[in-house]
Amino acid sequence: MRNRLSHFRMSTNSEPTSSDLPVIESSAEVPASGPIHFTAKTEDAGLRMDRFLADTLGTVSRSRVKTLIDEGRLRSDKGPVTQPAEAVRAGATYILDMPAPIPATPQPQVIPFPILYEDADLIVLDKPAGLVVHPAPGNLDGTLVNALLAHCGPGFTGIGAERRPGIVHRLDKDTSGVMVVAKTQLASDALTTAFANRDLDRAYKALVWGLPQPLTGEIEGAIGRDTRDRKRMAVVEKGGKYALTRYKTMRAWTTSLALLECRLATGRTHQIRVHLSNAGHPVVGDPLYLRRVPSAAKGIGHVLRGQLLDFPRQALHAASLGFKHPRTGRPISFEAAVPADMQALLDLIDANMACS
After folding, report:
1. Fold (CATH) for 115-197
2. Cβ count within 10 A of residue 121
3. Are residues 257 and 284 in contact, defined by beta-carbon separation less than 8 angstroms?
4. CA pair distance 241, 192, nearest whole angstrom
5. How large is the C-alpha radius of gyration of the chain?
6. Is position 174 annotated as part of the catalytic site?
7. Do 115-197 and 201-352 come out as alike in CATH topology?
8. For residues 129 and 213, what is the distance between their CA atoms, to the nearest angstrom?
9. For position 21, what pLDDT does the model report?
10. Angle (CA) 289 291 297, round 5°
């Protein structure tokens, strides 16, 4: 492995800086977090970006580098770098934004959450909106993982060599609904395979602006990181991952609002939210994919329109989940009613608008 750490320069700024910045002389001096600035040399030209960064840093795996690129944490003097396979340009200046390190072992924290079912192998729960699933930069504790560790207690053996629950799928922080978590390695392996093969049944409820046409259909489009905003995903022409969402209109209020049932044929980050927004029917309250007042809002009374626009989270709920029990093979399924805030919004719509 080549080590090119002497090429790196540190800065707290977010843009390429001049040559008077301090040079990192060893891997021990690579900052734990923050922007790392560096310039590629002639011999680096043509290398894959992920391999180049992993070899250069020396302390970060190639798979971790790929994740950082997918998260939109790498940019060059010509703009965002979104593809791990992009070729390195000789003389180009790159900036890698290293996130703050996450504690290796999350600590148990008593945080209540509704349990729908539990046995020796798994827990099925109704995740509340606002609860982060796993520790990450910005949410190092107070997560579902912390809550699960406290719930399972000191006798919990965990997955693999670690005392941790098996998070086999996730819901966004402000998406509520049914989740399954593995408590044993057997359950983790079986459920991971089931999610990867889509050998299960999941349905979401989404309150959206406008009325989709046709009322039942599919939305197809590759999803990748938005090059203009690394926090967002987008339907992209190249470089994304294939995604397919099936939807059915359950209720409609004129052509202004609709309650959809959505099912995922693939599982991409923010898939339902991205597909619906791209189709012109963003989820009510979505803080990332609803950037302007939708035209469908014009047909709604002023007071109700304001309450819809002020809804503090995406009105998206994982309503049901069905799968084969990893130990017995018996099909089991679970449902969770929409949470109180979303139900109150639906009741408010019913009280003010005719349902078609």
Report:
1. Pseudouridine synthase (3.30.2350)
2. 19
3. yes
4. 19
5. 23
6. no
7. yes
8. 29
9. 35
10. 100
Of the residues 44, 121, 172, 286, only one is catalytic, namely: 172
Sign of CA dihedral 142, 147, 148, 153: positive
213: number of Cβ within 10 Å: 11
Tokens 């983790």 -> residue: 188
Give the architecture-level CATH label for domain 5-98. Answer: Roll (3.10)
Is the whole model's pTM more than 0.90, yes or no? no
5-14, 153-162, 195-204, range with the lowest pLDDT: 5-14
CATH number belonging to domain 201-352: 3.30.2350.10
Whole-number Å distance between alpha carbons of 110 and 150: 6
Q: List phi, psi (to 5°) of 259.
A: -105, 120
Listed as own residue / partner, the contacts of 145-150 with beta carbons closer than 8 Å and 24 or more positions apart are 145/106, 146/106, 146/107, 146/108, 146/109, 146/111, 147/109, 147/110, 147/111, 147/112, 147/113, 148/123, 148/181, 149/106, 149/107, 149/108, 149/109, 150/108, 150/109, 150/110, 150/111
Cβ within 8 Å of residue 293, ≥6 positions away: 309
Q: For residue 282, say if its preceding peptide bond is cis, omega within 30 degrees of 0.
A: no
The enclosing H or E element of 220 equals: strand 216-220
Residues 259-301 have pLDDT tens digits of: 999 999 999 999 999 999 999 999 999 999 998 889 999 889 9
The dihedral through the CA atoms of 160, 71, 239, 4 has a sign that is: negative
Element at 234 (helix H, strand E): strand 233-235
Break the chain into its structural domains and give their ranges.
5-98, 115-197, 201-352
Q: Rounded to whole angstroms, how far apart are CA atoms 75 and 180?
A: 36
Dihedral angle of Cα 87, 89, 92, 97, to the nearest 10 degrees: 10
Work out whether the CA dihedral 110, 112, 118, 123 comes out positive or negative. Answer: negative
Cβ neighbors of 183 (< 8 A, separation 6 or more) are 120, 121, 122, 123, 152, 156, 165, 166
Kindly tell me if the per-residue pLDDT of 25 is higher than 50: no
The pLDDT of residue 284: 98
Q: Are strands 331-335 and 316-324 parallel, antiparallel or unpaired?
A: antiparallel
Is 124 in contact with 178 (CB distance < 8 Å)?
yes
Residue 85 C-beta-side C-alpha neighbours within 13 Å: 3
